[in-house]
């Protein structure tokens, strides 16, 4: 089992920045990759970015790479999402997720992640 806990969400004005953290515990050695998703009210959960747990490779959803940066610190078992130039449309609950299988490609679907955090709210005001 892997436990994930997000933190760092909050309220910010348009153009501001936030850094989200996702602390992992448990059988973290079994993880292949971790990712960030977000879900706005009335919308489906959307892929934001992912990183391999060991190699440091990263992948971003469409339009995410320009303003978001995913990273991880293996020594701390923690993944981060740096969000800059935030816009009101970035308002959502942000979730971190962990994947234990190697699909041989980047996974952007929620069904391919085995463990999820409880989410952290990000609100961007105009």
In short:
With 126 residues, this protein is mainly beta. It has strands at residues 2-7, 10-13, 18-26, 33-39, 46-52, 58-60, 68-73, 78-83, 92-99, 115-116, 120-125.
List keywords for this structure.
mainly beta; 4-stranded antiparallel sheet; single chain; 7-stranded mixed sheet; 0% helix; 126 residues
Largest sheet: 7 strands, mixed
Q: Structural class of the secondary elements?
A: mainly beta
Mean pLDDT: 93
Give, in order, the helices and strands: EEEEEEEEEEE
Helix content class: under 10%
For the CA atoms, what is the radius of gyration? Answer: 14 Å
User: What gap, in angstroms, lies between the N and C termini?
Assistant: 40 Å
How many alpha or pi helices? 0
User: What's the number of extended β-strand segments?
Assistant: 11
Overall geometric form: globular
Strand percent estimate: over 45%
Low-confidence stretches: none
Structure report:
There is one protein chain. With 126 residues, the protein is mostly beta strands. 0% of the residues lie in helices and 51% in strands. It is built from no helices and 11 strands. Strands 2, 4, 5, 6, 9, 10 and 11 form a 7-stranded mixed β-sheet that branches. The chain has a 4-stranded antiparallel β-sheet with strand order 1-3-8-7, with no helix packed on it. The chain is globular. The model has no long low-confidence stretch (mean pLDDT 93).
């Amino acid at each position: 089992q892997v436990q994930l806990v997000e933190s760092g969400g909050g309220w910010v004005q348009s153009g501001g920045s936030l850094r989200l953290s996702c602390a992992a515990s448990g059988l973290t050695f079994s993880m292949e990759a971790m990712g960030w998703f977000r879900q706005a009210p009335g919308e489906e959960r959307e892929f934001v970015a992912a990183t391999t747990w060991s190699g440091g490779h990263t992948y971003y959803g469409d339009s995410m790479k320009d303003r978001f940066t995913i990273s991880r610190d293996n020594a701390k078992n923690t993944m981060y999402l740096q969000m800059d130039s935030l816009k009101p449309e970035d308002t959502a609950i942000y979730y971190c997720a962990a994947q234990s299988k190697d699909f041989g490609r980047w996974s952007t679907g929620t069904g391919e992640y085995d463990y999820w955090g409880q989410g952290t709210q990000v609100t961007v005001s105009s």
